Amino acid sequence: AQSVAQPEDQVNVAEGNPLTVKCTYSVSGNPYLFWYVQYPNRGLQFLLKYITGDNLVKGSYGFEAEFNKSQTSFHLKKPSALVSDSALYFCAVRTENSGYSTLTFGKGTMLLVSP
Amino acid sequence: DTAVSQTPKYLVTQMGNDKSIKCEQNLGHDTMYWYKQDSKKFLKIMFSYNNKELIINETVPNRFSPKSPDKAHLNLHINSLELGDSAVYFCASSQGGLVIYEQYFGPGTRLTVT
């Protein structure tokens, strides 16, 4: 079964510092990986995805993610954190079900950026 | 323009009641989903419809019945509500099939069963 793991419940970082939110995956076949962000009392918003190609994927709001096949990881990164980046971040992997694709999400990582 | 909308945003009701949540998308997508997010923020898919046909049903109790009158709408009806049904329910949509398209989520409906 396809799955992703987010080992950290919470990540704390000071504004202006680089941030990393970790995700590892377990899939059979090629992995299709996603990052979503959930702001308080809001729905999930798509940030970026890895399907194939360049291992460094750039997404919305200055975020990027690095796909590492040997380490089965897809960590989310940003060079300089903003207080407004504080939110819940979900890693997800494509799962095939009945000939269709759906997403299996990790448990989420709360990112807190302090001023 | 709201891409994926849900009504109501909040729903407070008593055990044993029946309630419905409505979802509409104006993105022209052919696939819609219902997710449940529990109190620990864990997100799990419940159902998926493609072109008004049920394609995914993830061992959800029979008390939950989705209905898709057309490609742009996916409603969720819940019978005999239980305390454990309290959660945030998210609707989402995407282009379907095996091609890997991202999903767009609605704002969620917070259901509280007392």
Summarize the structure.
The complex is a heterodimer of chains A (115) and B (114). With 115 residues, chain A is mostly beta strands. Chain A has a single domain, classed as Immunoglobulins (Immunoglobulin-like).
Characterization of the model:
Chain A has a single domain, classed as Immunoglobulins (Immunoglobulin-like, Sandwich). Chain A contains no helices and 12 strands. Chain A has strands at 3-5, 10-14, 19-21, 24-26, 33-38, 44-50, 56-58, 64-68, 73-78, 87-97, 100-105, 109-114. In chain A, the strands form 3 sheets. In chain A, strands 2, 5, 6, 10, 11 and 12 form a 6-stranded mixed β-sheet that branches. A 4-stranded antiparallel β-sheet of chain A has the order 3-9-8-7, with no helix packed on it. With 115 residues, chain A is mostly beta strands. Chain B is an all-beta fold. Chain B has a single domain (4-96), classed as Immunoglobulins (Immunoglobulin-like), CATH 2.60.40.10. Helices cover 0% and strands 55% of the residues of chain B. In chain B, strands 2, 4, 5, 6, 9, 10 and 11 form a 7-stranded mixed β-sheet that branches. In chain B, strands 1-3-8-7 form a 4-stranded antiparallel β-sheet, with no helix packed on it. In chain B, strand 4 and strand 5 form a beta hairpin. Chain B is globular and about 40 Å long.
